[in-house]
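Hi support team,

I submitted a single chain yesterday and got back a structure, but I'm not sure I'm reading the token output correctly. Could someone confirm the output below corresponds to the sequence I sent? I've pasted both exactly as they appear in my results page.

Thanks,
R.
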Amino acid sequence: MNKTIETLLNHKSVRKFQERPLTKEQIETIVKSAQAASTSSFIQAYSIIGVKDQQKKEKLAELAGNQEYVAKNGHFFVFCADLHRHELISEMEGKDLSDALESTEKFMVSLIDTALAAQNASIAAESMGLGIVYIGGIRNNLIEVCQLLNVPKKVIPLFGLSVGYPGQSPDVKPRLPLEHIYHEDSYNENNSVLKDQLKDYNELISSYYDQRTNGKRKDTWTEQMAQMLSNPKRQYMKEFIEGKGFSRR
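Hi R., thanks for writing in. Yes, this is the structure output for that exact sequence:
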């Protein structure tokens, strides 16, 4: 056990922040930490947009489903998959790179690179005593988000990250049991065992919600997932991604 591991294991999503902006130094430290993340073949296929303008933050909050903590935080980051700079490389080096840049493989690389950078940023922020919460809701209305942030083709805003001084101290939410997530040598396909593990986890999560809400909520994890997945969201995404010049091949 060390401070890094303690920070990781103590992660929780913070959805209420103090009205206290991050300093320029804090922002730059978080971005530099993001840039230090591993990147496939050094492609660095992401960009980060920091949103300070309060009107833009309020509009993003609306587009993300009226999530107040998108507008009220210390700083709001938008993490984007970005192959635009690689189109510029195509022009600079006089090579047609479209087969690679429009491939599903490079689309996946851009997603992975972006996620790795964002997680580095999150850990850096939390190590500084700040709170964070990821905002997938910006994908609800990506056309409007792209227009608001002046995002070019070959760039896709994937999620936001609200960062700031915590205005609340939520409990750490229990994760799935290690033996359900971690498999050695091959995937454990014993569905009976997997279902038993899920049943045990359901009891843990139901108890967690019961205590956190003083009995107002007792749903299990599998109930929660089944409810969410029975209502597919953002069905425009495939067409939007292809229209942005990603995953055409």
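A quick pointer for reading it: Residues 104-127 form the longest helix (24 residues). Let us know if anything else looks off.

Best,
Support desk
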